[in-house]
Design brief:
single chain, six-stranded mixed β-sheet, three-stranded antiparallel β-sheet, 9 strands, binds inosinic acid, binds magnesium ion
Length: 178
């Protein structure tokens, strides 16, 4: 399976690259207004949010630092309830205004775990910013402060989201054809 040919032929576009570009700028502007004058610590959740985070932080008109946390909670197309930290945050979190950047909130377990994990390190505040919100799949109530798009209960790939590690490089969000 080589990148482009495989990926592009098997995916139906759900959200175009242009729609993503516009929406990410909007959300970036909203965060910039809300955190004006503050010193923000962005914590991006790897691997899925690497593209969203890269675009979002470049649209922020804010002084901020960016750090990463790597968690695993997912095998194939079934989310597992148990989340594990694979690699932790290096920046000091105490007293910081933290914004967690996540690719997608599905059942809600991952984001709930992350909020609890990061809260233990005593930040001043925590907000969450997700690229996609699969609201209809929620099993765990979790606060989503910023989101770019709400989607239905489809398994999606692209713009950082993967299926078994593939498809992350697609510039749009799509659904794998049956
Ligand atoms: P949750 O714990 O059920 O909210 O699952 C969230 C995690 O599952 C996300 O961080 C994604 O890595 C992954 N995930 C959930 N839905 C999808 C999807 O449609 N495509 C790709 N990854 C997904
Ligand atoms: Mg993820």
């Amino acid at each position: 399976m080589t990148g482009k040919q495989y990926s592009y032929n098997n995916v139906d576009v759900l959200i175009s690259a242009e729609d993503i570009r516009k929406k990410v700028l909007e959300v970036g502007a909203q965060i910039s207004r809300d955190y004006e004058g503050k010193n923000v610590l962005i914590i991006a959740v790897l691997n899925g949010s690497f593209i969203f985070c890269a675009d979002l932080v470049r649209s922020l008109d804010l002084e901020c630092k960016v750090d990463f946390i790597s968690v695993s909670s997912y095998i194939g197309t079934q989310t597992q309830g148990n989340v594990k930290v694979i690699s932790g945050i290096k920046e000091d979190i105490i007293g910081k205004d933290v914004v967690i950047i996540e690719d997608i909130v599905d059942r809600g377990f991952t984001l709930d775990f992350l909020i609890k994990e990061i809260s233990l390190k005593k930040p001043k505040s925590i907000k969450t910013c997700v690229f996609l919100d699969k609201k209809c799949a929620r099993e765990k109530e979790v606060a989503v402060d910023y989101s770019c798009f709400e989607i239905g209960n489809d398994f999606v790939v692209g713009y950082g989201l993967d299926y078994n590690g593939f498809f992350r490089q697609l510039p749009y969000v799509g659904k794998i054809k049956e």
